[in-house]
Amino acid sequence: LAAASIAAMTLVGSAFVGPASAQSPIVIKFSHVVASDTPKGKAADKFKELAEKYTNGKVKVEVYPNSTLYKDKEELEALQLGAVQMLAPSNSKFGPIGIKEFEVFDLPYILPDLKSLRKVTDGPLGAKLLQKLDSKGMTGLAYWDNGFKQMSANKKLVAPSDYKGLKFRIQSSKVLEAQFRALGAIPQVMAFSDVYQALQTGVVDGQENTWSNIYTQKMHEVQKYATVTNHGYIGYVVVVNKKFWDGLPADIRDELNKAMKEATEFGNSQSAKENDDALEAIKKAGKTEIISLTPEQDEAMRKAMMPVYKEVASRVGQPLIDEFLKETG
Ligand code: LMR
């Protein structure tokens, strides 16, 4: 970021930290990168509705969807500088700011289902992971679901060998990089907002994402094939600027925590259906052939990706991986 824009962000940020008065509500700028009609978009809008209601308008939440304010990496920098107050980046996006532990969620096939995910996010390990954010000037408030990832390309992806030599867009996670390398593919980190165009122009051949993200970004219009793999998970950590959060009047913070809890329950209860509906909509659009794997083909994919666990153990931390597996097992 240019020095001038950092200065501008800092100025904007500090203007919103301070006590509420009748004339000027406390403003929470909530920036995110997906469409409003997605699990994250809907949970953010629900938080806005409840936060404004429970604080009787003392807090105003401005939601900026679809990377209208910032792209992936910029939004985390903006939060740290106080230019925005709240975000919900995916677990895969904390590595570049020096928190590697959330990448444990990126390990292939680590979550058999959403029930086992909940054991982590609602338990002691989830709480411990959120505390890692403090040292980066953030407070972690909640875990929000998206769902399981699927593979897409302009080529049929069935066997691990089908991935060989293809370029795949990935989020900024070393685990995801290792995953595609294990398949013999070429991973390329790219902001979410750039994926559609990169697929359309052939800068990358394929990508992995949830049905909801694929559909709302229209990726299915520029990908001939998508394979039901459910090989990984995308979920979010809701984070606030710590200084802003700690500086709020205690009663306001309590109401916001209540709003967050309810928005989380609302969002997480709908995420699976949103992805099912998006898959149906993709099928209906008729531009993408949806491929299902036989149990044997599924097994071959799992086997091909297993070396990732060893490869990233020193980065993510073997004890953390073990603890995660124990809690979900
Ligand atoms: C991605 O970059 O693919 C996702 O993290 C986008 C999102 O926020 O769901």
Automatic annotation (TrEMBL):
Region forming the signal peptide: 1-22
Keyword annotations: Signal, Transport
Database matches in InterPro entries: DctP_fam (IPR018389), TRAP_DctP (IPR004682), TRAP_DctP_sf (IPR038404)
UniProt xrefs under Pfam families: DctP
Family: Belongs to the bacterial solute-binding protein 7 family.
Name of the protein described by the UniProt record: TRAP transporter substrate-binding protein
Organism of provenance: Bradyrhizobium jicamae
